[in-house]
Amino acid sequence: MTKLKNIKSFVLFICMFLLFVSFVFASVSDTLNEGEQNTYTLSGNSYVVKLHFVDSDDVKFSVNGLYTRNLDIGHTDTLFAGSPNKIVFKVTDIEYEDVAGGIHRSSFSIIFEGTEEPVIEDPVTCSDSDNGENFYTKGRISTNDPSWDSTVEDKCASVVSGETQYVNSCGNSNCYIVEHYCTGIKPELIMSSCINGCNNGACLKNQVKSECTDSDGGKDYNSKGTTKVTTGSGQQTLNDNCWSDKTNSICEGKNDGCTLTEYSCDDDKLSLEIYDCPNGCSKGACIKSETSHRSSNRVVSTTVTVPSSSGSNDNVESTSNVGGIIESKVACSVDQDCVDQNPCTDDYCKGTPKSCFNEIGDGCVFNKNCVPYGLRLGLEYCNINKSIMDQKPKEAVCRYDYECLSDVCINYKCFKSNLFQKIIIWFRKIF
Fold it and tell me: Is the domain covering 2-114 a CATH 2.50.20 domain?
């Protein structure tokens, strides 16, 4: 009887031990794609696991909002240490393809060594005051990543004997900006050369005085003029033209709201005037009458600015031939022989002897396609001179909303979009 009782006690002990092991040391293994999350139930508790990013040699997960360290294959991280619900997280595989649309995923295993709901710690955060890699504005990042200081500012630097030394300012070839920014929740830094010098944690922009000349001597509505603006990045040319806002195209006469776009210089500033010619507009000038008209309608002036080293364009548009026909002098038999590389031209074969003609149509060449005037292409747009232009900053001269980064052009100037301006635009479209 005693022997039987001992056997029953032993069996009961084994059962209790197995139940304890399965309950306390529950585990799970799975594979997630970058940005994907899943919920797992172990020991009666739910745990949300998310894969935040995948690189070629490390990954970062979170469990119930608590982030792991950057982990390589085979590495582990212990979460909620010191609590009754310690978690051991292990990365078992990383798949990463460094191409657009490539595979970004990771396999992992988790052991939950406890039975109580863990205390959730604050997740790692990162914020940047100048919103990313902005070399021309001093910024600072704030983070609670334990491997970084809580606040780090952008700094000017020089390299001496192979070592980076922070300086308040520099202005020679050995002049750099140490730019701090955030990649998601991850603090980062990059070191870049400042070609115009650096001061107080920001690269200096190129400040080159502009020059402006006008072939018709100013506001001469009866003569087609050419206005040239010379800056440190080169020369931009604008021709007076007749334009209809109604048809959004070059026009002739007085129909369809045909008006004169008159460019001129105000000292070294570019001036734009939209003038309603009394007798109509033709070929970039008012049609003359017995009485010459020289008056001022709506005039907008702006300082022509030089692009920064980050690559933005001047606040003027390049000139291109409008509606012209180019005779290439190439012998041909049929129209197909005259097809050129410009999708915005009509190509045909004519004359005696036959030769190729390429008539320039409306639109701009973009990615081997012809796109219409006014089409916005990311931070660029197709302008009336058949050029792809960068959208313009606040205070730049404009005619249409699509020319401005803010998508707001009022009284021929780009404005920062806000609720008040949106109300004005709404009423303008109604009336």
Answer: no
